[in-house]
Design a protein that fits this description.
Layout: H1 4-50, H2 63-73, E1 74-79, E2 101-108, E3 111-122, E4 127-134, E5 141-148, H3 162-166, E6 174-175, E7 180-181, E8 185-186, H4 191-194, E9 203-204, H5 211-236
Parallel strand pairs: 8-9
Antiparallel strand pairs: 1-2, 2-3, 3-4, 4-5, 6-7
Helix pairs in contact: 1-2
Length: 238
C-alpha cells in the first residue's frame, strides 16, 4: 500500500514530468519554426546564387537583405507539362504527386535575365539537390549549384565545388544545327580529350574517381531539363 509520503513523491514526480513535457514541446515548436525559416532562406540563397545576379550578394549577407533582394528580383511561377504557366500558383502550392513544376524567373528592369528550376537525382551514396539556371535564350546554361548531398569528400562531393559548377556556365541544352534538345552531360575525363570540337558545348569535365556521381548528375540533368523543355520551346519558338 502507498503511504502519504509515497503519494506526495509520486505527485511531485508527475508534476515535474508534465512541466518538462510541456516545456520541451514548446521549445521544439519554437525551434521547428526557426528551422523551417532557415531552410527556406537557404533555398532562396541558392536560387539567387545559381541565377548569377548582376550585383552579387557579398558573403555573410544578412537574412533580411537576402529576402529583400529575392522578393524584388525573383518571380515565382508554376508550369504544367505543356510548358504553360499556371496562373495564381506558386511553388509552395504544389502538392506531392501533382505534375506541376516550380520555376523561378530572375528579372532586371522587368525583363527576364534567367530561368531557374530545381534538379534532384541520385548520386553514388545519396540524393543530390540543386538548381540549374538558363539564359533568356532558353539554350545557354547560366549556372548550376548543388547545395545538399552525401557524396564522398574529395571525390563525388566535388559537385559542390566552384571548379565543377563553373564548367557548366555557357554550355548549351539545345542543338541549333540539328534542331533538337541536347541536355548537358558529364564525361569521364576531360571534354577536350574525348569529345569532338563541334560537340564540346554540350559536355563538361568529369570528376576523377567519381564516375557514379558524374553519371548521376548526367541522368538528373537529362530528366529535369526535359520536364522544362515545353516551356523553353515556347521561348525559342522552335
Amino acid at each position: 500500500m502507498f503511504n502519504k509520503e509515497n503519494i506526495r513523491t509520486f505527485r511531485f514526480a508527475l508534476i515535474v514530468c508534465v512541466i518538462c513535457s510541456f516545456s520541451l514541446a514548446a521549445v521544439s515548436q519554437g525551434l521547428r519554426a526557426r528551422r523551417e525559416f532557415n531552410e527556406s532562406l537557404d533555398v532562396k540563397k541558392n536560387i539567387l546564387k545559381v541565377m548569377d545576379l548582376r550585383d552579387p550578394l557579398p558573403p555573410h549577407t544578412s537574412g533580411k537583405k537576402v529576402l529583400e533582394v529575392y522578393n524584388s528580383k525573383v518571380t515565382e511561377a508554376v508550369i504544367d507539362p505543356e510548358g504553360k504557366i499556371v496562373k495564381g500558383e506558386k511553388p509552395s502550392d504544389i502538392k506531392e504527386g501533382q505534375k506541376l513544376y516550380p520555376l523561378y524567373i530572375y528579372k532586371e528592369d522587368g525583363k527576364p535575365v534567367a530561368y531557374a528550376f530545381p534538379i534532384v537525382g541520385h548520386g553514388l551514396w545519396s540524393t543530390l539537390y540543386g538548381y540549374l539556371s538558363i539564359e533568356p535564350d532558353a539554350i545557354t546554361v547560366r549556372g548550376i549549384t548543388f547545395y545538399k548531398h552525401g557524396e564522398t569528400p574529395g571525390l563525388g562531393a566535388e559537385i559542390s565545388s566552384h571548379w565543377f559548377q563553373a564548367n557548366f556556365k555557357g554550355k548549351k541544352i539545345w542543338d541549333t544545327k540539328e534542331d533538337k534538345l541536347h541536355p548537358v552531360s558529364v564525361v569521364k575525363g576531360k571534354v577536350k580529350d574525348v569529345v569532338a570540337p563541334d560537340q564540346q558545348q554540350f559536355y563538361v569535365d568529369g570528376i576523377s574517381g567519381a564516375t557514379m556521381t558524374s553519371k548521376g548528375v548526367t541522368e538528373l540533368l537529362d530528366r529535369e531539363i526535359r520536364k522544362y523543355e515545353p516551356f523553353f520551346k515556347k521561348i525559342r519558338g522552335t
